[in-house]
Amino acid sequence: MKWDTPFRDRAEAGQALAAMLREFREQADVLVLALPRGGVPVAYEVANALALRLDLILVRKLGTPGHKEVAMGAIASGGVQVFNDDAIRDLHISPTAIETAIHEETLELLRRDKVYRGKRPAPTMLGQRVILVDDGIATGATMRAAIVAVRQQAPARIAVAVPVAPAETLAMLRPLVDQLICQLTPKPFHSVGQYYRDFAQTTDEEVKTLLRLAWRREPRQTGAPP
């Protein structure tokens, strides 16, 4: 494999990540939570390979005005908000711009919850071991929001598992979780997409299809209620 594009696509990355998570195989108290949308194909492969339950943690990055790819923070289900104070200060982002971004991303978060989950209730995390999965981490803003949101629901343990991330971001996240699993920590790190040959945007339909496949398997694989 070439170092600059080690993964063919998110499915292959998920399969590689599953091999690093074999200790969790067929554990009834383990819940895999994907960060939509790109984290869903990765998490699906992890859950499928290890016979684990799969669900979602809804998180939205707050992009800076005019540069949406640059995170000034993130929001998550349950009213969680985390901010990159350095970016906000250095880019002179106004409170009004922050509130506008929060409003817009909250609407998208609610839309995704309705589209992806439908009438299915959110998973219970109390006393569970939770594995948060994404297709990669750059600044860590969205993953940090996800960790805060999950921590509020009193899980037994929280692990973060991703195929690729910069070492400095992992160092920032490590004190926030019980376990951190990452296959690649390239240096220099430019963007998550650089390490995938196919990094096409995951669609709503792909997310819904993978979730329904996983949920249909639950009773047979884990004994979880349908």
Automatic annotation (TrEMBL):
Keywords: Glycosyltransferase, Transferase
Leader sequence segment: none
Protein name from the UniProt record: Orotate phosphoribosyltransferase
Gene3D superfamilies: 3.40.50.2020, PRTase-like (3.30.1310.20)
One Pfam family cited in the UniProt record for this chain: Pribosyltran
Top-level taxon of the source organism: Bacteria
All residue ranges annotated as the Phosphoribosyltransferase domain in the record: 19-174
GO molecular function, one term: glycosyltransferase activity
InterPro entries found in the cross-reference section: PRTase-like, PRTase_dom
